[in-house]
Design goal:
0% strand, mainly alpha, elongated
């Protein structure tokens, strides 16, 4: 009787271990294997690898432009300039 009383004291522990074992077993039985997952994502891995390889290749082979302080002034002047009709309409008012 003493052993049964001690076992009943740990009945929730045994139940939890049993549920955990059944859950893990079902997960391994029902889940797809690693090769299936790898085959599904293989095009994504391949395209990402090729893209990163191209970025690294182009980064190493292309030459950097000369460090000219006036390199972007032309485009900045074009963007910052007001259109002709906006300037004319402002002067006429």
């Amino acid at each position: 009787m003493e052993i049964q009383e001690k076992l009943l004291k740990f009945k929730f522990h045994f139940l939890f271990a049993l549920i955990l074992t059944i859950s893990v077993s079902a997960l391994f039985y029902l889940a797809p294997n690693f090769a299936t997952i790898l085959a599904y994502f293989c095009p994504l891995f391949l395209s990402t690898t090729l893209f990163l390889g191209a970025v690294i290749f182009l980064g190493k082979t292309s030459s950097l432009p000369a460090t000219d302080d006036k390199a972007g002034e032309g485009i900045l002047d074009y963007v910052a300039a007001q259109p002709e009709h906006a300037v004319d309409s402002y002067k006429s008012e």
